[in-house]
């Protein structure tokens, strides 16, 4: 099913480990370069801006091919306009397969053809079904999952997660008012089920090249679980989908549950992240806490905004200060010491840049050694010894 050579995928995992060990100081750059020479590698791009540039170039190439086909196809009757997106999707699949055979993996060019194929599948089904959202979401989810399994393309997996949510939502819409009413609970249960399923798959994983995909799906489930029963999301969707008019002094059904869910779940995320040392869950918990505060303030402004921001800053400063004081001397577990594997010199480089720009300092250049050697200097003349 996978288009790429599995041995190359294993070698890529080894190269990533070698880069991590070099950044941590366990091996030297020469040792890492030696490992890289001995292991074949894909044509990929690690720098996001360069990859984005190749993606734009690939999109232009993809569009040029589809445009050339359209010039020929428009000569025919109106049938072409009904099948053109299927042809464009086929071009995307063919281009992705060709680039995979040329060992392009996460390069940017392959991104354009893979995502273009998925997008054209959605357009094609939309034209055929007159914009039937549920069918469009189903076929886009299938296409995205096939692309991920075939090329291990992480953006395609993200499209699959979003399309799967659309399938759930539009599927419940088919049941009318009942489906729209139980939508938050159905999304919450589905997210929890897939979260534990992906977590179990990660623990029992034997093929390392599936790890990033499972981690992405697992993190997506955490976000979906929180948003599914967030009070602000549920209330606004109930107004939008059900047409409920919430009068002053009234509230949505099960409001206390959604309030409690909005406040408790981010704290559970935070505690679990600190307990398991899960960095991604920790960041998600911070974002969830911030969105929960925004949710409460959106409907209940207890303090003026300037007072609330000031008090919030004081509280965050106090938490950060005492946390650093408590953790800075710890050597194990949760600690404030830099991570040897995932450290960065960005702050140090930024500090040096600020100092240099402030005082107008320029890097010192060591002058080339002069071929004429001066010595002595018993008197004021350079190199003079008091004799000829």
Automatic annotation (TrEMBL):
Organism annotation: Flavobacterium saccharophilum
What keywords appear on the UniProt entry? Membrane, Transmembrane, Transmembrane helix
- Descriptive protein name: DUF2157 domain-containing protein
Record has Magnesium as a keyword: no
Record carries keyword Membrane: yes
Domain of life of the organism encoding this protein: Bacteria
Query: TM spans, by residue?
Result: 48-73, 79-100, 112-128, 157-175, 181-197, 209-234, 254-271, 280-299, 305-324
Organism classification: Bacteria, Pseudomonadati, Bacteroidota, Flavobacteriia, Flavobacteriales
